[in-house]
Amino acid sequence: MAAPAARGSTPYQRWARATLLARTPETGTARTLVLRAPGWPGHLPGQHIDIRLTAEDGYQAARSYSLAAPGRGEHLEVGVQPVDDGEVSPYLAEDLPVGADVEVRGPLGGWFVWRPERATAPLLLLAGGSGVVPLMAMLRGHRTSGARVPARLVYSVRDPAQLWYGSELAAFAPPVSVRLLHTRDAPPGDPRPPGRIASADLPDADGPFAPGVPDVFVCGPTGFVEYAADLLLLAGHPAERIRTERFG
């Protein structure tokens, strides 16, 4: 996986063209977009890009989207969850024609990232809804890099229909584990009743990951992230090992 170039050293730190190659559904509304960005410098799991659209009258709107996979040449995968009355996300999710160009800028973000080549601590990931997108990049990076540190994803969704990457998550095997939490409607046979994430859903800092204290990444809506971060602190996870990213 290529490391991202230094800021200002490539045209992607400015706006440049990228072409939509494919759009695939993740849920009833969420989509993965695959873009080709010639000369892309590479990126790290957890980073994001800005995408800008320009209307015929010259009006422009730009939004940030998380990258769903580690860098692989010129191909970028981004996750898009349409926002009601949004200017950019509904168009990207449903209307942008395959083969059309958009403008992109990035990679962006240097703090909420996981570096497989430096991984010595276990990895604990907490996702709420579409917040799973950058964490999926970390799990995919874990797999492709051959990392052997344990990795656990705790993923909270409202109901099974809101699950991103369902088949791929089900296929992960040790040292990766995935736990799904449903807040409103659980599938038949789920031993956990629906409800928001709770202390019992999270490993203690000195629990199954011992003797290594995990690096923790939390991503999702603001309310989820703040509540989950408080639970992690109560479970004994050091604040300096918890990194958060909020949507909305």
Automatic annotation (TrEMBL):
Pfam families: FAD_binding_6, NAD_binding_1. It comes from the Bacteria. Residues 182-204 are annotated as: Disordered. Its cofactor is FAD. The keyword Lyase does not apply. Keywords: 2Fe-2S, Iron, Iron-sulfur, Metal-binding. Residues 13-114 form the FAD-binding FR-type domain. PANTHER family: NADH OXIDOREDUCTASE HCR, PROTEIN RFBI. This is FAD-binding oxidoreductase. It comes from Streptomyces evansiae.
